[in-house]
Structure formats: structure tokens, C-alpha cells
Amino acid sequence: MKGDVIGGLVGVLVGVGVVAGALALRIGTPTSPQPGFFPFLGGAAVVLLSAILLVQAGLGRSTGTEAFGEVRRPAILILGLAVYVAILDPVGYVPATVLISGVILRTLGVTSWRVLGAGSVALAVGTYVLFARLLGIELPAGVLEFLG
Amino acid sequence: MDFLTGLGHGFAVALTPWNLVYAFAGAVIGTAIGVLPGLGTPATIALLLPVTYKMDPTSAVIMLAGIFYGAMYGGSTTSILLKIPGEAASIVTCLDGYEMARQGRAGPALGMSALGSFIAASLSVLAMSAIAPGLASFALKFGPAEYASLVFLGLIMAVYLSEGSVVKGLLMTAVGLVLGTVGIDPVFGAARFTFGVPHLMDGVDFVAAGMGLFGIAEVLMNLEAPDVRNVYKTSLRGLLPTRDDWRRSWAAILRGTGLGFFIGVLPGGGAVISSFVAYAVEKRVSRHPERFGRGAIEGVAAPESANNAASTSSFIPLLTLGIPGNASIAMIFVALMIHGIQPGPLLFQQHPNLFWGVIASMYVGNLMLLGLNLPLIGFWVRLLRVPYAYLAVVVVIFCIIGAYSISNTVFDVGVMLVFGVFGYLLRKGGFPAAPLVLAMILGRILERSFLQALQVSAADLSIFVEKPISAALLSVAALVMLTPVARWLWRQRWIAPGV
Fold this sequence. Notes:
The complex is a heterodimer of chains A (148) and B (499). In chain A, 70% of the residues lie in helices and 3% in strands. Chain A has a two-stranded antiparallel ribbon. The model of chain A has no long low-confidence stretch (mean pLDDT 89). Chain A has 148 residues and is an all-alpha fold. In chain A, helix 1 (2-25) packs antiparallel against helix 2 (37-58) and helix 4 crosses helix 5. The N and C termini of chain A lie far apart (55 Å). The N and C termini of chain B lie far apart (49 Å). Chain B is built from 23 helices and two strands. In chain B, strands 1-2 form a two-stranded antiparallel ribbon. With 499 residues, chain B is mainly α. In chain B, helix 5 (57-82) crosses helix 6 (93-102), helix 10 (206-224) crosses helix 20 (410-429) and helix 11 (243-265) packs across helix 12 (270-285). The interface between A and B is large, with 68 and 67 residues.
């Protein structure tokens, strides 16, 4: 029920924001729609359906929500990926990927530092060779640019 | 090009050495992700998109299609041996499959699952070969009004046929429609919800969103739960079902195939719902329904046949109408768009190699899958012993590469992360992600078709009800939307039973 209440409240807020943005774009009429017409319909539907969700939650008819379990590990990955996004361009694909691989393996219980180090480096270098060298996909070289 | 000529042409394409390699790769990857719990087909297809960038589009779709239908074969293995469905479409197989394993009959359960899947997939490919060209020709008569109505029906059905709360499904569709409007609008050129960010001018990228919603969210969900995989210790000898098993199962396979094929064509239908419907039907028509849930082989044969038939037939709306009906097909739709190919009725005429090549590759792919699944069952079971940590790290790295390679900017990696967290929260709240992705894709088509229809009709909305096909499609949509109301009235006894 708590999930539906939070979801419903967020939905109402976001929907109202979308409706306001759509009105600013001008919505026109159904026979002469303007750029805001479709966002307005979508935003209004979000508000209406979120309100229904809140009413259902109020009546104790929430379905499908799942309690959070061990959130520490997902939180570490989210944080790790946020850091990854910040450092990918300056440090490059291989060092950044070594870091995120290490974080994931460590979070999921790989305790041997040798396995952790070798696994992370192998994954980062292996995927770089596969995608950048063999498949021609551009990946940022970063600090390893001097290697060509 | 008639059916047989087209199919002959398709086999010439599908049987080239490289396309055989790609079909085999798709079948192997599909079986592997079907076996491994914790990685779904939409995520796998999304994260393999960058691998296809440099490939010929026909080969790319042959491989991605192989992953999709291959996963249906592999999904049953974990259902039968672990009571953990490798794929959502194999959930119902747990009921009788695991019971059979407990009774020492894991072999026949796995065998019947693979053979039933093969029969269903083969019959469905045959039916698709016959139906698809006709449907594509019919769809050529569609104008913008018909397309707008078709997309509207598709969105409505995707919600009403998906599992869980209808309100949550509709809410996700509405959110997807809003997200689909981000970027430069198609007629006036106005920037909508871009907040001055140049990367958003082309809209929210489907690939980054799909990788986040299905790939990263899946990993985040799995990080929460401890990694426990206890394979049921049982004999895997005697994989071939007995004569009695066949006697009990042949009708179930045929019924499952028919139901699965029909449900797979419907937007939102797909493999999951077809397996549940097939199981329910089989239990209802059985003279001994009490056997179900206690190791009835029909309870394995029917849903496994249905999910394979549905996964095959769900390609029909994509290849003929250009409408993706479920999340996996939506990712294949995106793959085609990346290669500059617009799926739809003209695909049949403009890209016969792709149209017929993909269909023919399904015959070949299903034969490969039978060979991969029966003799190599021991190998797939051993695959379950790979620690989840290694799978998770590979998924995350593939998602990162896939997102970055969209436009070689870190911005798309950020979009993927945002959608990953969003998808994780949606999963926890019981909000389905598939209608959101479908609405993001279909919303853009809906808006464009709606505006084009108004231009054609000189701003007369009656075009949507005056065109017979459009009117019929809207009527079906109205009926679908009214069904829950009628059901509620029925429950309230406002409609007398039997009336």
C-alpha cells in the first residue's frame, strides 16, 4: 500500500508538471492540435490514473507491491554507476570499467583480491578488445589514449 | 512473390554460412538466458544491440529472433529442475514439471518440453509463412487513420492482456506516452520537455531506456535477493517421453500451439499469458483435472507449446504492421530502426531478404534448438552453477557499452542509469515496464498518424469512424476497455447470469 501511495503522489506531481508544460506549449483543439496537445493528454491521463491509484490504496486495494529486501547492494551499484558516468570520459573505458567490475564482484561476494583484480581487468580489457577493436565501436580511451 | 517462392528465397538467405552462424549464436544465447534465472529476453536483446551495429540487418534480426524463441526452450529447464522459471513464460511449467522431477521423471518432462516446443514452433512458423504475406498486403490499404486506430488498439490490448493491475498498466502507458513526446515535435518543430539539453532534442533513446528498464533494473532486483540455486538431484536419463506420455500430450501440444499462436499475434499477448491460458484450458478439458499440479505431463506440454507458438507468432504484427506487441519484439523493432529499416507492410516488398530470411531462419533455428536442448541438457544444467556475480558484471558492462555506443556520449549511459533505477522502483511497486516501453515507441507513431489523418481529412475527426477498418479497430478497443466494467457489473449481480 505504501508503494502505491508514493507512486500515486509522485504520479500526480509529475502529471501536473507535464500538463503545465503542455499548456505552456499551447494545446490547441482536437481538430487543430498544437505541440502541447499530446503531452497534455498523456499528462492528464497520468494525473487521473495516479489519483485512482491513491483512491485504491486508500480503500486497501493495493496489489503487486514488493517489500524492499537487502537494499545495500543495489545502492552500492547505483552509486558505483553514478561515479562511472562521472569518470568515464576523463579516465576512459578500461580504468572506469575495471572499477565498476570490481565494485560489482565485491558486492556480490567475491572476496579473493586476486580473483577480483584479475577478473575486473580481464573483463574490462576483454570487452574493450571485442567491442572497440573487433566490432569497431567507439569507446573513450581516456588516460590510456597514448596506447593508440 | 507467392508463399512458396518467398519461402524458397528465404531459405537461400537463411542457409548462407554466416546466417547459419548467427542463427546458431541466437539459439545458444537464447537457451542460455532462458536457463539462467535473472536475465530476461528484452534485456538480452537490448544489451546485444551494439553487437549488431556493424552486421547486415537480416543477420542481426535472425540472431535476435533466435535469442527470443531460444529463451522459450531454455526457460523450462530451470522450471523443471529448480522450480525457478528461467523465463516468465515458463512459470506455469513449474507446477507439473517440478513435480515430475520429484517423482524421478525429470527426463521425460524436459524431453516433452523440448519436443512440444519444437512441434509448436514448427507449426507456428508454417502458419506464419502462410499468413504474414496476406496480412502485409492487407495492411498496405491502411492510411494514417487506420494506423492511428491500430496503434491505439495495440496500446489498450497491451495493458489489458498484461499481468497485474490494469490501473498500473494504464498509468505506465500514460507515462510512456509522455516520455515519447520528449524532443522536437514532428509537425511544428517545437522542443518539448528538453529543458535546454541538446541530447534530448531527438527524444529519449529507446535503447538506453530499454537497457535501463530491463537490464540494470533486473540486476538491481537480483542484487537484493541471495543467490540460491539448488538443482534438483534427479536422473536425466531417458529424455524421450514414453508412448503413454505421448498419448496424454499430443492433443495438449496441438491445443497449446493453436492458443499460443492466436494470443501471440495480439498486442500485449505474447508468451507469458499464452502459457497460463494453455495450462488453464488443458486443466479444464482434462477428464482428470486433479492430476494437474501433481506431475501431469500435459501440464508441461501445453504451456511450453503455447509459449513457443506465441513467441513465433508475435513476429507477425512486427513484420506486417510495424507494431511491436511486447517488450522483446519492441527491442527487435528498435534494432530494425537502428539499421534504417521501417518495419511494416512495405517490409515484405522492400526488404524481401529480411522478411523471408527471418521466417526461414526460424525453421532452421528450431531444428538447432532441438539439437541443443535435448542432447546437451547436462551442459545447460551445469551452466546454472556459474555464480551470479559474473553474469551481473557482464550484463552491466554490456549495458554500458550499448548505451554509450548509441551516440558515443556518456549522456546515454546516464539515461540508462536513470531508467535502471526507475525500472527497479517500478518493479518493487508492481508497475509493469513493458507497457511503458511500448507506449514510448507506439506513442510517436500514434501522434504522427493522428496528425497525418487530420491533414488528410481537412481536420475532420470523423475520419476515424468513417473509415471501416479504423472504425472496426476502435470498436474492438472500446470493447476491450469495457470488459473490466462488464466484469465488475457481473460480479455485482447487476447482470443476471445467463442473460
